[in-house]
Amino acid sequence: MTDPTTETTTEAKFTPEEIEDGKGMAILAWIFWLIPLLAARDKKFAMFHTQQALALWITFIVVYIALWILILIVSAISDTLTCIISILGIIPWLFLIVFWIMGLISAIQGKAKELPIIGSFGSKFNFVK
Question: What does the alpha-carbon distance between residue 78 and residue 35 come to, in Å, rounded to a whole number?
């Protein structure tokens, strides 16, 4: 059993003023991340959500390209496997929708939680700075 006091948190800390100041742009980041990236670079809360949204889209594109390369390779081997892998192509879309909704809700609530699995990529690769 793990001790709850030793768990690491994935929630960034912002002042209430930073949250209120950047909340509109943070919500907009989940709809179209380029607008806050260009118009709200000085708003830390908005940039956090822009970074998370950008990490989500980059991860989605990389996974989807890898899936299509796999489909091209497998298509030379077996039509049945190609069909199965093509059907599995819906999985990246489902993850995109679920993570997008999670991020949007987080921005609406004024929270700065990293997305599960991929949220740390944004800060690691420093997409928006």
Answer: 44
d(CA 128, CA 41): 8
- Burial classification of residue 119, based on how many CB atoms lie within 10 Å of its CB (0-12 exposed, 13-18 middle, 19 or more buried): buried
Q: Are 119 and 10 in contact (CB under 8 A)?
A: yes
DSSP-assigned letter for residue 126: T
Residue that has been written with the tokens 């390209």 in this structure: 65
Is pTM beyond 0.85? Reply is no
Residue-wise DSSP of 59-125? HHHHHHHHHHHHHHHHHTT-HHHHHHHHHTTHHHHHHHHHHHHHHHHHHHTT--BPPTTTHHHHHHH
**What confidence score (pLDDT) does residue 1 get?**
47
Q: Do residues 33 and 53 touch, judged by C-beta distance below 8 A? A: yes
Residues in the chain, pLDDT under 70: 1-10
